[in-house]
Structure formats: C-alpha cells, structure tokens
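Narrative summary of target 7.
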Amino acid sequence: MRRSLRIAILALILRCSILSAGTSGKIAGQVIDGETGEPLIGVNIIVEGTSYGAATNADGYYTILNIMPGTYSVRASMIGYQAMIQQNVQVMIDLTTPLDFELTTEVLAGQEVVVIAKMPTVKKDVTSTSFRVSSDEIEQLQVQTLSDIVNLQAGVVEGHFRGGRAGEVMYIVDGIPMNDAYSGENLFDVESDMIQEVEIISGTFNAEYGQAMSGIVNIVTKEGQQYYSGKLSLFSGDYVSSHTKTFMYIDHINPLSVSNLQMSLSGPLPFMKERISFSILGRIYRNEGWQYGRRIFRPQDFSTFSDKPEENVIQSTGDSAYVPMNPSEMKTLQGKISMKLSQRDKINYTFFYEDEYHRDFDRLFKYNPDGNYHHESNSYQNGLQYTRMFGKSTFLTANASESFTEYGQYVYKDPYDPRYVPIEHLTQNNSNGFSTGGMRMWHHFRNNRTRILKADLRSQFTQHQTLGLGVSYKQCRLWLHEYQLYFDENDEIRIPSDSSWYNNSYTREPVEIAAYIQDKLELGEMIINIGLRLDYFDPNGEVPEYFYDTQEAPKRKAKTSHQWSPRFGIAYPISDQGVIHFSYGHFFQVPNYEHLYINPDFEVNLIQLKGDQPPRGRYNIMGNAELKPEKTVSYEIGIKQAITSNLTIDITGYNKDIRDLIGQITMQNIYGGKFWRFINRDYANVKGITVALEMLEQQPGSVGFSVDYTYQSATGNASDPMDESKNQESDPPIQSEKKRRPLDWDQTHSLNMAMTTTQMGFHISLIGKIGSGTPYTRESPYYNNRILNGERKPMTMTFDLNVTKDFYFNTWIISPFMKITNLLDRKNNREVYASSGTADYNYDMIFETYRGYKTQEEWYIQPNFYDEPRKVIIGCSLSFDQKR
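Modeled conformation, tokenized:
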C-alpha cells in the first residue's frame, strides 16, 4: 500500500515537469491612481531594455516572472496618465522585488516621471539564511575568485558550511550542478568578472536543491547586453615576508612570481544585435608559490646514513637550484551565448574550460624536489538552456549539459621513463629525515563524464502562490586506473598485474534521478515555502556475497536507494522593517563516488610493498556500493531588523543533526588479512548562533561594511571517513571514538569583517577574518592522557587590503590597483605538532636521534603548517563600456 502510494506520487510529479535551481527572480506590485487611491486596470509594466512585461489586473496587481538578476529601470504607462519610470530596481535570485506605482493624470502629452526606486532594506520573503552578492558588490569588494566570496559568509570555515564535512556543498552554475562526481569538489572556479549574482545558502534550502547536506552556492553568469563592453586586466607580484627561517627563499623577490592575464568581452553579435549576444572571458594564471626546496639531490642519487655522522655516505648530483614546491598554473575559458528566438523563446549556451597544474609541498622532498608528485587536470562543460514563456504567469526552462574532467598524478607521466629508480633509493637509506634520492612510485589516472537533463516549470498559480514541479536525471561514467611501479629481479621497471592490489581499475556508470515539488505562498506579508523531494540512486556497482573471502566470493548487483525530503520555511514581518523566519528540512546526499568503488576487486593483501599509500586511499581499504545516502535534519530560527535606512542586524540560531555519515569497520578474512570497509556509521551534531550587521555604501565618500560573528559547536565521533583505518594502523593501535568530540574544523568563535569606501577617487576594501583555534589531539610518547581533539590550536587572524584608482577617458577606464593578502604577515597555524600545539616546535624531537641530511631542527620546520605569508600584487585594468 505504502509503495503504491509513493509510486503514484512520483508518477504525478513526473507528468507535471521539472524544476531546476533558481536562476531568476520576479517583480510584483500594484498600480493605483495617485489622486483617488483606486487600483488601475490595464496599466502596461515594462522592464526597459528587455522583453519582460505585464499588465495590471482588475485589482491593479501585476507580476513579471523569470527576470535575470540585476539592476533595471521599470516603466508603467497608461493612456491619460503620466508615465512613471522607477530606476535602480534590483532583482535577485528566487526573490520577489516589490514595486508599486502611483500614476497621476497627464497634463502635457509625453510627460514622464522618473524616480529612484527605494528598495526595502530587509527582504521579507527570505525564509532561511542566505547571502546574495551582486556583480556590483563583487566589484566593490575587489575579490578575485568565487572561493574568496564564499569564505566571507557567516558560518563558513575553509569550505565547511556550518560544521559539515567538506564536500557537502552543491555548486550550481546557471541551473546546472558543477560538482566533480568522483570527489564532490567544485569542478570550476567561476571567475568573478563572469558572475552576475551568486547566492550562498548556509541554512536550509528549498526542495529544488538536492545532493547537498550543508549548503548551496548558486551562480548566475552574465549575459551579453545590447552594447559592447570589455576588460583587459593584468597583474604580477610576489610574497613579501620577514619569516625567512620558516619559508626558504622568501627573501628573494621576483616581481613575476605571481602573474595573471585576463581578458573579457561582451555585447551583441554583429548583424544580429537584437537576437544574439555573447559574454566571454579568458584567463591565464601562474603562481610559483611560497614553499621552496633546493635541488641538492636528484632522484637517481643514493645515500646511506648512520648514527655516526662520520660514517654517512652521501651521493649528491643536484645543481643546488631553488625549486618552487607548491606551484600552480591555470588556464580558463568561460562564456555564454544568448539567443532570443521570439518574445517568448530564448536559448542560452554556456561553456567552461579549465586546464590546471599544481604540486603539493612535502618536506620529505625538500632537498630532492624532483621526486614528488605532479598533479594535472583538464575539464570542460557544455550547457544548453531553453526558456519558454506561456502567457505572463508560467514559464518552462529546460537544461541539458555534459561535463568531462580528467586527472593525473605521477612523478613522470610515462611509467617506463628511464629516470625512474627502485624504491630503495627512497626507503632504504637508514634516514629518518629528508629524502636524498628516489621518488614516489604511484600513478593515478581517472576521468568522468557527466550528463544531466533537467527542466523547470514554474507558474504564478494565483496572485499569492508560485508553484513549481520537477524531475532531473543525471548519469556519470567514471573510469579509474592506478598502480604502483616496482623493479623486478632483473632491475626492470614493471607495472603490477591486473590481479594485484597495487593495480586497480574500474568503470562505473551510476544514475541519479530526482523529483520535487515546491510551493511559495505569499499571504499578505507572510511568506511560506513548502516542498517535497524524492531522490533515487542506482550505483551500478557490485558487492561480495560474504566477507570472509572477498576476492573469491560471488558478487551481486548493489541495491538501489531512495529517500523523501520534506522542506518547510516561513517568514513573518514583526514590523515594517523587520521579519522573523523559521525553516526546517531533511537533506540527503549520496556519498562521494570514490568511497563506493575504491578497490573494485575487493582484494586484501597480506604483505605491503615498500612505498607510500595510494594517492586517494589507504592500504587494504574496500569500497561499498551499497552505502546509504548521508542524512542531515536541520532547522533554524532568526530575526532580521533594519536599524536605519541602510543598516540591518540579523540574528539566527541553528541546529543540525547528522546521521549515516561515512566511516569504516575493521574486518578480517580467513587468511588473517585485516581490511577496512566503508559503512554508514558516523554521526555529528552542529549548533550555533550568528549575529550579523550590514551597512550599505550609499554614495561615494560614505562607508559600507558588514560584520558577522558566529558561535558554533560542531561535534561528532569522527572527522575523517578513514579515521578507523588510520587508528588501527597506528603504533600502538588507537580505539576509535564512540562519543561525540569536537570535529577537526570546529571553530568556536568566528568573526568576519568587510569594509568598502571610495575616498578621493580611490576604491578601498579591507577584508578581515578572525577565528579561534580549531581542535587537535595532544599526543606524545611521554603524554598518556590522550583525548581526541581535547586541545585547541592558536587563533588565526588575517586582513586583506585592496586599493583601486579609476581614470576616465570617455567610454574607457584605466584602473591601476594593488592587492595585499595577509596584510600583517601573520604566521597563522594551519597544522600543529601534537606534542606542542604549535607549528613552531615539536617536543618529541628531544627524544629522537636524527639520522639524515641537514639538522633535526630544520626537519621539523614545516612551511605547509602555516597559511601563506604576505602577498603583494600590483596591476592595471583597461575597460570600456559603450553604455557609459
């Protein structure tokens, strides 16, 4: 009976149509006679410069749907009345912009009344915590990347939204999810100059959003207009720091160490100006980084060390050059082409391309820098969006997209490269310090192709009700191949056989289907959002029938899963400039695919080869294609009140109960081999309160600022899905935690600040972040009272300064600028030594005998334990705008 009812509900939703992430807003209001106060019927309301418009009904009300976020002028006209134009009308994603008109009788033909629209300081239809940042605000803040914008928001700590694990945030661009199917990370970092508006939801969210437990980052990119505009920007700089002991070679200033070239152009397509427009941006970025090594040794060298320094045998063939050990390079191309087929039909084509390279610092290779891994990735996405207006109150949006990303990790791409040497060069030199030869031996390659079909049917069902119904379909094709090289008895390089634990490959094609219904009720000044979502997942994987011999056990197809997610939110005004909101919801997320399919042959190896752990896993880890979706039940209550016409305060309290997080269970086969299988076993709870103040910069010379403080407690039994295997492999093994303890990213106190102003033609922004220390576990051979995350790291504090000066020449602007990150050059501890609670010193060193190159003191200097030092960038941009 229950199953039949669910199928009937799903069928009903599927027949209706499909709802995608919000990419537009609406304008609604009433037109009255300015003298009598009577509603006016048949008044034409036009959004100037667009094809959007409506006419008032018998009660004088109108609604204009599907408007791209931005700032507009809206015109109201009717025969016998003076036309009225309201300028500076702001439209935001998923929100209603109230806009009323009072028309007066026309005295002279052609007269118009032009006024600056007064936008409400408090948006009264926001039912949960969200932040919307427009392109104008991004320009005021002078931030470069999307991640800079996201980390400015309250409750966000290094990508963790309100205490959730990393990877629990969905990134959406023009209605299409943009997360990497394998790892859950953001696939593209949309350039700030391409963003029209970004909506960041850290609280609960409506039913149209799925596959996320902690937050949504919803981006709408810019469309080309009916005039041309463009920008050329370049900058360069370097890290300027006095911490020469911590950061090798930091006192060598290279003005081209950090360089960037960016070009953008938008406007109408020649000869088809009324129908087709474009917006395109390209960027080349290069950063040598701030963590250096020195090439004293090459991977082919071999040395041996003894407790007696005079017996050391050292072979060194390096050129002593300083080598960047955390460099990065990126090339991006992003754009959108918009075509108006008619007054009712429109097509958008979006494309993204990104080529990225980087290396990660590893102190082991500080004097043998060529022995560490290289990381390369290449990604692209093509998206097509079709919008159809049905009358004035209903519109359909259909989306289709395909994305592809490939990733490689290796020392030399060719596994038979003659520069490879046996692993003994790295592991058998009797050193407990820096590497003096050898290299990493794993090769890791993967790619995934993701196809998504979704659409959106949204209707102003009545004057007070907006209804949406929907479904989405997503199919991924994941391929992975990784192996660890070795040398055979003939000293020939070899790739392990396909049956070896050290050679893994798979191809999987999981499918996700979702259906949802969302209703927005605007009952006078009270707003209600209510929705229901159904998610279905088919992993298309296999699991063993039993686990005492996983390799020989028969395999069966993994079971599918589904779940229902109710969502509810309400906003109610408590004054003419204040609103209280409450929201509640169930949120599910399929675990990252890497946890489902790792070790696809279910192998358990009794003997571990020399070398390091696999790049994306650990020794004898086993995936589980039947992992259930992780679940969060979240609610929040808050109040937002305008103090003055441009100053608001927002106070919000929240609670998240998180279940079925991914963890591991320790198992053993009949041969005595121990292995760890992923299961749904971890749990967490997050609670907190945020207080935010915001004052808008209303005119040149004034000051705008935002300040938010968050008090938060994020506790759980495990921070990492692989904690169990790490604990069991430690010496001695550690019992995994059963009760809740602070999670690794639990920052009790967080304070974010941003200030913008224009003084004497200089645009200035100052951005600050202050946070209390996150937890760590104190451990030492002579410290027996081990308490998981029982101690706190030092507090962190950073300020970034941006200054720009504009010089106007008709339609052109020349803008020299300077950006300084970590203005105070503070050594913020990212990681600490477990014995001391600081990155500066390890107490354990006094109990150790050091054997190796250089000194024990230098071995324990880890620049990757700190945030990046002060960076100074100087650049200039040249822009033009025909509209100016």
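Residues 692 and 708 are 4 Å apart (CA to CA).
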